[in-house]
Amino acid sequence: MELLVIFISALLINNFVLHYFLGLCPFIGVSNRLDSAASMGMAVTFVMTIAATVSWLIYYLLLVPYHLEFLEIVSFILVIASLVQLVEMFIRKVSPPLYQALGIYLPLITTNCAILGVALLTVLKGYNFIETLVFSLGAGLGFSLAIIIMAGIREELEFADVPESLKGAGITMITAGILALAFMGFSGLIK
Amino acid sequence: MSRLWKEFIKGWWKENPVFVMVLGMCPTLAVTNSVQNAIGMIGAVTFVLIGSSLIVSLIRKIVPNQVRIATFIVVIATFVTMADRYLAAYYPELSKALGPYVPLIVVNCIILGRQEAFASKNGVIASLLDALGMSIGFGIALMFMSSVREILGSGTWLGMKVLGSWYIPWQVMILPAGAFFVYGFLYWGFRAIDKAFTKG
Amino acid sequence: MKESLRMIIVLTFFAALSGGVLGWFNSFTEKRVEMNKLKELQNSLKAVTEMDPKTDAYENIVKEKDFEIYKIISGTQVKAYAIVGEGNGYQDKIRLIFGVKPDFSEIIALKVLEEKETPGLGAKIESPDYLAQWKGKGANSKLELVKTPPKTKYEVQAISGATISSTTVVNIVNKSLERARRIIKEKEEGK
After folding, report:
1. C7 occurs within a structural domain
2. Is residue C93 part of a domain?
3. Boundaries of domain holding B172
4. Residues of chain B contacting A172 with CB distance shorter than 8 Å
5. What is the pLDDT of residues B41-68, one digit of tens each?
6. B103, B78 in Cβ contact below 8 A?
7. What does the pLDDT look like over B11-28, one tens digit per residue?
8. Dihedral sign computed on CA atoms, order B185, B188, B190, B192
9. Distances from the Cα of B191 to the Cαs of A32, B184, B200, C158, in angstroms?
């Protein structure tokens, strides 16, 4: 089942954070607490899926037929920026409790390279609409998985004796490196 | 004159975008597996940063406040597209190696960060120097990262063998995990050195 | 009201300016990008079928996302077929091209187009030593992967430490050969 391969690949084997290095800013910034990590993960997955599919539609229904592929970057980023605005307004109106949980993270997501990254990669890999949907879902969940695991580890690290100059980004990145090594074990999972 | 000089060199060390402000991580980790790729990225980022800062600084008085981020993004995206298309046309091998990371420069926090924090509030000359200084700081960081990763991971530097055949390449250095490790340790070193100098 | 109008005008102006500049810039780079792609294709065809670009012509008879067939014509004779195939390797997709004699008896040569396998292990499928063994491999029967030096022209030696990558290459070739043979036969019969 090719779709399953795409999903597992995005989720584990070619994990968006630990393999493609996308979404690092929120990854470093928001992974210090489990609950905020989980919220960020949910928000990113949600926006990623919508952004990737909408960008796909724009690319194949608008840019390609009119031979405007060179406007890919400009149009994608404008779409993503507006999408995030709309999603924020929508959630605020429809579900205030959900807005409470996710709301503050949404504006941060616009410049999250993971969102633009998914959109660009789906075009690069030539996925069709369903494949794009599956891919972005897997990518978002992969991001969530990585950030939640990282948050769990960092909460424990609070009690460890980290050298002063290594605190913050330093120790987070080294931990991420170990995580990346661990995730390499997933390679060869699908044949 | 000395104020302009300060704007220029702050990006090299004190406000190094990669090791101090921790911005623009995605390309830093992704393309530093070889020095050649790093140089390609440094060129692209420098082009985009200088071009965008120039334009943003020129138009800063006529852009209404609410749409400034959107306008900056359009300006940045334009320069990024030009860099991307230029590489695809004249350096196809490099373009393929850098892949989606050149288009991703458009969401690189360094670029938007400098527009928001500096170019939109300062004159053209100052903004140009700020952009150039930040690019140099970015370049220094990437050259360090890519040199360490390529020498340890492949035994070469810019494709030329520097370690004899006695050296068994430390594969993990050119893999994603290695990128995280090298960054972590360089970050540590950077902060420790900085601290030692500011204290003493 | 005046403020919102000004906002819209400024943004639209810059968006239009951006589009214009990019359209103009693109008109130069587009041609070169096309030329690069064409040159790359010709190089690959030459590498796997010994095509002589000065005297031979080629025709693309099948073009799908993960499968292509090119007919190499010398004068009025079919000199060879070049087949492009894809498959899932250890880390990500492997894409390769290989040339086969017009009677599908033998493989002329093989070249790996895209791979993201482990450097030093799976990535060795791009090394000249590994690729050299593909010259003259049998194409009229299924190829088999072996761990020792091949005894027949239907055996392909795996790269030690890279079993999955090696297996994928053999599978792609077998699968593509079968499909190409069927398609060519149908075309011949259709004539």
Report:
1. no
2. yes
3. 2-199
4. 184
5. 999 999 999 999 999 999 988 888 878 8
6. no
7. 888 888 888 888 888 888
8. negative
9. 21, 11, 14, 47
Contacts of A73 in chain B (CB under 8 A): 77, 80-81, 84, 103, 106
The first and second tokens of residue B109, run together, are: 């926090």
Counted domains in chain B: 1
pTM, full prediction: 0.87
In a mutagenesis test of the B interface, which of C1, C5, C8, C11 is the best target, namely the one with the most B β-carbons within 10 Å? C11
The range of the structural domain enclosing residue C87 comes to: 47-190
pLDDT, tens only, A116-169: 999 999 998 889 999 999 999 999 999 999 999 999 998 888 888 888 888 878
CA angle C76, C80, C86 (to 5 degrees): 140
> How many C-beta neighbours within 10 Å does residue B21 have?
17
Tokens standing for residue B70: 């959107």
C-beta atoms of A190 and C65 within 8 A: no
Q: Do C30 and A70 touch (CB under 8 A)?
A: yes
Contacts of C33 in chain B (CB under 8 A): 85, 88-89, 92
Intra-chain end-to-end CA distance of chain A, in Å: 11
Q: What is the pLDDT of residue B55?
A: 93
Mutate which of C33, C63, C90, C93 to test chain A, going by most A C-beta atoms within 10 A?
C90
Does A5 contact C26 at a Cβ distance shorter than 8 Å? no
Residue C2 lies inside a defined structural domain of this protein:
no
Number of domains chain C is built from: 1
- Give Cα A106 distance to the centre of its chain: 12
Which helix or strand (DSSP H or E) is residue C146 part of?
A: strand C144-146
